[in-house]
Amino acid sequence: MDITTDLVAEFKDRMRITHSSEDGYLSSLLRTSYADIKAKCGEFDINLDDRGKELVFERSRYAFNDALEYFNDNFLSQINSFGLDNLPEPVGDEDAGI
Questions:
Q1: How far is CA 26 from CA 5, 34, 58, 81, 86, in A?
Q2: Percent helix, strand and coil across the chain, each to the nearest 5
Q3: Counting runs of H as helices and runs of E as strands, what totals does the chain give?
């Protein structure tokens, strides 16, 4: 999935960025953050999953402010919760016991 101009605009609104000179950089931050959150938590559609989008935006904010090393510790609970909730459904016989 590519980061859309609408997503960049939404992130800019949140960050209160009014100029467009950093749009390419912001798009890159969002793309990298989306890939990172998907790697940690599994596949999700950033346009349909508000929790996933929130984590992508927060990671991008930390990266934008040169504080990325603090993101994982500060959002560990949310990352774990989203990852667990985002686990794929098991495939197979539901009646098979453990």
A1: 10, 12, 13, 26, 26
A2: 65, 0, 35
A3: 5, 0
10, 24 contact by CB (below 8 A): no
Rounded Cα distance, 79 and 3, in Å: 21
| Residue indicated by tokens 């790697």 | 39
With beta carbons less than 8 A apart as the criterion, state whether 46 and 56 touch: yes
Q: Within a 10 A sphere around the Cβ of 57, how many other Cβ atoms?
A: 21
Q: Helix or strand or coil: residue 39? A: helix
* pLDDT tens across the length of the chain (98 residues): 679 999 999 999 999 999 999 999 999 999 999 999 999 999 999 999 999 999 999 999 999 999 999 999 999 999 999 999 988 877 765 655 55
